[in-house]
Amino acid sequence: MRLAVVSDIHGNIRALEAVHARIKDSSPDLTVNLGDCLSGPLWPEETAQYLMAENWPTVRGNHDRALTETSVPDPEKVDGFTHQCLSAASRQWISALPASLSLPPEILLCHGSPEDDEVFLLEEDGGDHFYPSDEAQIARKLGKIDARLILCGHTHTPRIALISGWAVLNPGSVGVQAFPGLTVTGSPHARFAIATLEKGEWTFVHHAIAYDWSEAAQRAEATGFASWSHGLLTGYAGKRS
Fold first, then answer.
1. Against a cut of 0.90, is the pTM above it?
2. Which region among 19-33, 44-58, 60-74 has the lowest average model confidence (pLDDT)?
3. pLDDT tens per residue across span 9-18
4. To 5 degrees, how large is the angle CA 92–CA 97–CA 100?
5. Do you know which InterPro entries this protein is assigned to (predicted)?
6. How far, in Å, CA of 144 to CA of 31, rounded?
7. In whole angstroms, how far apart are CA 193 and each of 104, 165, 197?
8. Residue 70's pLDDT band (boundaries 50, 70, 90)?
9. N or C: which end of the chain has fewer CB within 10 A?
10. 240 in a domain, yes or no?
């Protein structure tokens, strides 16, 4: 079995298109999406239409959840901008996404941790950086789940952990590699991963894909979110405002 795993697209359809083209070359049995699909100053509605057409198994991220809360987000913030861009059909789609999803054989999809879409499953928060969680910390966050393979996103950090009979994979982010004040990967390339099950064992390959990140940076500036531009263009954080 071969899975393509994407996460944290954040409305960056140019990155998504490039990633999907490479995924097709790998001929996976299934592509899964770990959430934070649309929120970003880029192309949220176009991304929603693309994802609805592909119909990949998808879970809700914390930003997806924010888009569905009863109070309309502040339009001067990214979630508010995204909310204003979305059609009724796209809002309905994002509202219907589950917080987690189980797939055979013994696979769990979640955004943050199995219990909380804002928890960093494989990392600890160092303020201006993430650092890896140790095995005991990861085990506590996993609790007593039955899955053997856990797929998570949220931190935008490509990482693999093999502990206590679990394999945990974060594929990194398709759409965003750095935020103001926080460098995640240090390059602008879009990320995804391939997970392969052979003879009862999972193996993993991370991928970094070139796309037209200059167009994405220009789009962020055009929509009034110039603070995103530097990270999209370089993969390194700009200064916090």
1. yes
2. 60-74
3. 999 999 999 9
4. 170
5. Ap4A_hydrolase, Calcineurin-like_PHP_lpxH, Metallo-depent_PP-like, Pesterase_MJ0912
6. 26
7. 18, 20, 13
8. low
9. C
10. no
Domain with 60 in it: what CATH number? 3.60.21.10
Reduce the DSSP state of residue 232 to 3 states and report it.
helix
Token readout for 213 is 């990140």
Distance CA 125, CA 133 (A): 9
Number of domains in the chain: 1
Task: Tell me whether residue 102 is in a domain.
Answer: yes
Residue 241 forms part of a structural domain: no
Tallying the residues shown for the chain, one arrives at 241
Tell me the angle at which helices 44-54 and 13-26 cross, rounded to the nearest 10 degrees.
Answer: 20
pLDDT 10s digits, 125-171: 877 677 899 999 999 999 888 899 999 999 999 999 999 889 999 99
Q: What gap in Å lies between CA 74 and CA 92, rounded to an integer?
A: 20
